[in-house]
Amino acid sequence: MSLSRIYGMQARLRTQLQKSAVKLATAASPVVLESVVHRRWIVSGTVGYEKLAAKPVQKHDWNRAVSEAEKIVGYPTSFLSLRWLLSDEIANVALHLRKLVGSNHPLLRTAKVLIYNGKSNMQAWGLIVLLVSKAVGHAPTIPDLEQDKSAGVLQSQRGLAEITEMIRTAHLVHQGLVNLQPMANAGNDLGNDSDTIFGNKIALLSGDYLLGNACLQLAGLRNQPLIELISSAVRDLAESSFFGERDLQNNPLPSRPLERAAAEGSATGDEEVDLSFGDMVDNTQPLSLAGVMGNPEKEWSLRHILGAGSLLGKSCQGTMMLAGQPESLQRRGYMFGKHLSLAWQACIDLEPFGSDQLPSGGRFSLVSAPVLFHLDHDPSLYAEIEKGRETVESIDYAKVHAAVRSGPGLELTRALQKKHSLAALTVLHELPPSDARTALQNIILAMQDI
Fold this sequence. Notes:
By secondary structure, the chain is mostly helical. It has 17 helices and six strands. It has helices at about 5-25, 30-35, 60-75, 80-85, 90-95, 105-115, 125-135, 155-175, 195-220, 225-240, 295-320, 325-350, 370-375, 380-385, 395-405, 410-430, 435-445, and strands at about 40-45, 45-50, 145-150, 155, 245, 250-255. A hairpin with a 2-residue loop joins strand 1 (about 40-45) and strand 2 (about 45-50). Helix 3 (about 60-75) packs across helix 7 and helix 13 (about 370-375) crosses helix 16. Mean pLDDT is about 80; it is low at about 20-55 and about 80. GO terms for molecular function: prenyltransferase activity. One of its GO terms (cellular component) is mitochondrion. InterPro entries: Isoprenoid_synthase_dom_sf. This is Decaprenyl-diphosphate synthase subunit 2.
């Protein structure tokens, strides 16, 4: 091909590109163009990086919010550590898990939750930890060898994100265990229920494997205050499995509502409820149970702080600790993770009550916020709850579902969700503007539409 022909093709291509650019500039508004070219400086330690600001998420779509956030930290973060997923031990567990197909063991439901990471299950906690890490930056005294400058986080912070997800996953897997016998018959012959026994072994061993690896990685960070902090979160997770009333299969049941004077009425959601439980003073100590049982908001909050909020909050606090941030900011990190977790749980609790009728055989959490608020409004429904002392299968879920939908529980839960979302956003806005902060804000806003 001759040079003249090549130059001619280049000229025609250049002309077409110029025409396309003119059309685009004519169609786009000045505001849009300004947002496209707008840039923001992100400061991490003493190094400044010029990066495009995170794109605001239209209509607060959850999947898009997570996708945009993963781009900011540089890679997908759900199950950050693929080393243990590809190990021989986990491969063997996966093979054995196939034997449980068709047995209806609870571990199968847990595995489905972990594999199909939909918007109804918040498994991307490592993503939250890394976004917080990037949003706050790190102290200038952090050595260069500790920094992952391409991602804007420290190597130790990435390790903590992996640890957080492994602890959370281990807890969910352990919840798949089934009590084979009531205490009165413990030690007797179990018969031929081999599928259940086998499923329990897999749940116990795989959960222990993940928890053991998390503890090993945590010790490898060689940070004694951080080890103490995350260890207290593991203690809270264990305590959450024994908190409050439960049936023989350890399914949680709500406490009996407190008796209120007729003039006082039920909770309206307008009064401010103290949700500190002692963790504002020292959050490594066990949470206080004083005045909790029977109070709908306090009981719901403590259940889910123990079961989820403590781990996420302390992981956010711990990542600031690794960054050398002041203790006051570390405490704000704990509050952010705690409120974010509670806002998320309120969204999950509302989901089963979105339809007029409960599907046949449908189940939902009896300690969800709508149920607890309705029991406080109408204590007579507790007679139905008491039928589940032996097993929650004896409860008429359709009846409870219809009662809750007709009462104030749903509206109070929406107010509760907004309350914790605003509390998390308040902490977030104390941080300097950055793409990571915008991504966290988009995730919180996306919860509203779940």
